[in-house]
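Aim 2, interim progress: modelling of the thiamine diphosphate-bound target.
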Amino acid sequence: MRKGAQIVLDCLRAEGVDLAFGYPGGAIMPLYDALEGSGIRHVLTRHEQGAVFAAEGFARATGKVGVAIATSGPGATNLVTGIADAKMDSVPLVCITGQVRSPLIGSDAFQETDVFGMTLSLTKWNRMIRSIDELPAAIAEGFHWARSGRPGPVVIDIPLDILKASMEFGGPVKFTPPRLANHVGPESTFAATLIALLQQAKKPVALIGAGVKLSDAVEDLQQLLDLLNIPSFATVHGLGALKQKSPYYLGMVGMHGTKAANLALDETDLLLVFGARLDDRVTGEPTRFAPHAKIAHFEIDPSQLDRVRPCDAPVIGNLAETIPAFYQEAKHAHLPDFAGWRAVACGPERAERTHSPEPGETRKQGLAHPTKAFLQELFARMPKDDSGFILADVGQHQMWSAQCFRGNGPRGFITSGGLGAMGFALPAAIGVQLAKPNATVLCVSGDGGFQMNIQELATVHRLGLPIKMVIIDNKFLGMVRQWQELFFSCNYAETDLSDNPDFVEIAKAYKIAASMIKEEEFLDPGQSENVARRLTRFFRSTRPELLVFECHPEANVYPMVPAGSSLSEMVFEKE
Ligand SMILES: Cc1ncc(C[n+]2csc(CCOP(=O)(O)OP(=O)(O)O)c2C)c(N)n1
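Predicted structure of the complex, ligand included:
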């Protein structure tokens, strides 16, 4: 006989889980009681939101399913933001929640919430367990949906009495997915259609999204785009998919994308989309998006097609299959060279420097934007291969970080892109560092967002994780203040954080080493060697460490496509 709690853990092990993040409480106690000897390492965060973001960080760095555990009621409600985040960004996640005893369900029992109802629209699949014998099949099915197709979150809600009950257990089971009668895949003629579109096109471009990484099609895409040699750019989640040295790569596209990428997307007559959902941060005003373009869309999830406008050539399927299939046909086809278009779109008039600066290089260059120069100084010290991970929280520092990112690791830039959930970066960095113990993990947060999960400093300290934490402290909710400055006549309503706590002292209270660099110090030529030495030491440290960069309170993110404008209407910093 095995108890429900033990069966849950056996089934998690069978799915390859050896690490889970969570926070205990009444309804989930039997699971915690059974943890020892289960083969699963449990990491106690200091808030359930920390647990779910950490599980996401683990999943985003590895592609494996992240697992978060919480109790009923407030434990489960604290998971909800992370579940929504995983849905938006296609992150494989399984959340196990305790529920009140079965006979009490529906009675407003202590710590009862309708977890099933609450997460129905936020999950790919969710289930409330009604009997112990459902457990093995439900867990197998949950993991299947979390990792299959377009990955996403799953919730399994288990009443306390079921965790405590026992049954004869024959071992974990496998889930056999139903064969869908209307299985959709690419048209057999899709490659010929795309080749014909390319042959007619004068200004083709490629837009790269997260789907390329999620389907492990990074090398296939590089091979295809090296062949097509067309201007290419990435969404925030597509960053790192293409090698920086690719001469046709124009950086990030969208609201804070590069001039070159946004103009190319505005002017193109053939847009090849690879695993992106074309949300409004990428398209600008949807009705004026890529106005001259036909759209060909490589996508695993048919529900992502035709969202902005009907696509001319859908290519439905796993990108790891459809991209190589297209490459095989394209390499034998007679395709135009597009040299004239490349010269315009990738030419010096539009292009920004895209190589990785060396340490010290950015400081010497006039420093038009000190905070970006500081971030570049940090990023220049990151490994050049896939052993470096930069996490950005949400706000101005996130966009500056995305603009400065020059890494080559496909999973090397991790952020809450779809939901834009402040407080994501610090706990997610915990998950990344645990998944990749030898990696260099740099976590960049704003002074607002850092305070949303600041309690996870305790987790970092307990585990001794060598995360390099940076706060870009502008003493404002900066991104909102920027919008107030530009669109609300500088009415800085409730965005002032000038009475921020002393972050250095807070970190020290958590027994974490911490120091501050002020913008003036960073800019002072007399301090340059000292600052460089400090940054190098920060990167060499094998302990957790926090660095606070105190920057100008009213620095802005440019270029910017104002909401409601088309990509061609981006605005630049005033001289
Ligand atoms: C949980 C949550 N609440 C509110 C917002 C709205 N929001 C977006 S950016 C931002 C300001 C972030 O400020 P800070 O963390 O200091 O970063 P900065 O923009 O200054 O770099 C806010 C409030 C959000 N994205 N997430």
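Residues 423 and 449 are 5 Å apart (CA to CA). DSSP finds 24 helices and 20 strands in the chain.
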